[in-house]
Amino acid sequence: MNESAAGSVPPVLPGKEEAILQAAGRVFGRRGYHGSSIADVAAEAGVATGTIYLYFRRKEDLLIRLFQRSLQEYLESSRPLLAQAAAGEERLTRLVELHLEFFARDPDRARVFQIHLREVAPVLRDGITPTLREYVAIIDEVLRDGQAAGEFDAGLDLRLARHLLFGGLNEVVVSWLHADGRFELRDCAPACAAMLGRAFRRS
To answer: How far from the centroid of its chain's Cα atoms is residue 137's Cα?
Structure first.
């Protein structure tokens, strides 16, 4: 049941921020961030519009926080799983699996991320970039560890390799979104990992 906008300000409830963020992800994914309003998010979350402002000052903060929360959860869960895999192609394969699994779990989130990963609006870009850099740092670490283990080419251009990996996987995600369920994103992981492994492998 929706909260009434009239009367006293509703209390801040545990879990409400998370519910609002999840609603924002669904609304932004289906209508687009720029085509959505705070009122749309409030209606999806089942709260009064004023309740949103107890947690977020503006719509930009919703998108920034959505990126931060989602990526931090991904980073915290993926780091120990990557550490369990041997440096080199095994760890690369795990990284590819984790990346595709992250987006496969939530198509709405995948749409939001793919549209705004390279956000040019200054407020959004400055809010999203720091957390995105942490994800990029994991890619660099996987590549460097593979070099140190002697599995990846010691002369590998890490910047270009990172662009190839990150951009290539995101393009697969975009194709999956456009395919509208005609193939399973997770099933692409073995082939993607094998191709990338061949590209990076020590000759």
So the answer is: 14
